[in-house]
Amino acid sequence: MTRLFACALLASLVAAPALAQTNPGRFAVGAQVGTTGVGVEGQFQVSDRVTVRAGADLFRYDEEFDTGDIGYDGEIDFTTAGAFVDLHPFGNALFVSAGGYAGERSVKVTGTPRRDVVIAGQIFPPARFGRLVGEADFGGFAPFVGLGYNNTFRTDGRIGFKILAGAAFGEEPTVDLRREGGDALTPAVQAQFDADTAVEERRLEQELGNFKTLPVVQLGLSYRF
């Protein structure tokens, strides 16, 4: 991802002299990379002090964590679209931004016991217990606020540069777990397992709560036309 962004940056810098124009337009398209993943974006300059932006980002990341007796592999998948209003209070490249991200913001989890599991007095070694699988959902919308520098509409050329820092505020995660594999459970053991699973879901929600607020740092290049 970083290598592709570096190549795009180099290509844009090389092409900039040939693309320079005295009076480019009020639209721009570009690419960006950062903590939200890799994305594309469109911009429109409403006035000297107001710009609107809209784009889409793809972020995937694997993380390992545990809640005590269960070790988890988590696959973070944030596929989002965003819309923002940027205010340039001083009429220069500095701006404050507000908007939000919408789309899929989920974590798929697979949990494996680190030791024997006791359910309703019965002992299940990890191989007999199987594994826990499930998803954590962070809701469909996350408001965003941030600060940045964007010279896309502040130069006479067509190539612009953006750096942005802020935070997106998602909802408290909700987790749904189920067991795969392992021995069949009797009704009494199944009832106790369901109760234990509900407790584990709450533990996992607390662990994944760290991802509720997502720091946003982006670097972007844009082409104005």
Summarize the structure.
By secondary structure, the chain is α+β, with helices and mostly antiparallel strands. 20% of the residues lie in helices and 56% in strands.
Index terms:
single chain, two-stranded antiparallel sheet, 56% strand, 225 residues, 3 helices, eight-stranded antiparallel beta barrel, Porin, disordered N terminus, alpha+beta
What's the count of strands?
12
**Separation of the first and last Cα atoms:** 26 Å
Integer average pLDDT = 88
Number of helices: 3
Low-confidence stretches: 1-21
CATH class (first level) name: Mainly Beta
Global shape:
rod-shaped
> What Rg is obtained from the alpha carbons, in whole angstroms?
23 Å
CATH topology description: Porin
Report the sheet with the most strands, covering strand number, pairing sense and barrel closure: 8 strands, antiparallel, barrel
Total domain units: 1
CATH-scheme architecture: Beta Barrel
Tell me the fraction of residues in β-strands, as a range: over 45%
**Percent of residues in helices:** 10-25%
SSE order, one letter for each helix or strand: HEEEEEEEHEEEEHE
Helix/strand-derived category reads: alpha+beta
**Which sequence of strands runs across the widest sheet?**
1-2-3-4-5-9-10-12
Would you give an account of this structure?
This protein starts with a helix and ends with a strand. It has helices at 2-19, 126-129, 187-208; strands at residues 27-34, 37-45, 50-66, 70-87, 94-113, 117-119, 122-124, 131-137, 141-150, 159-169, 174-180, 213-224. It is built from three helices and twelve strands; from the N terminus they run αβββββββαββββαβ. It is an alpha+beta fold.
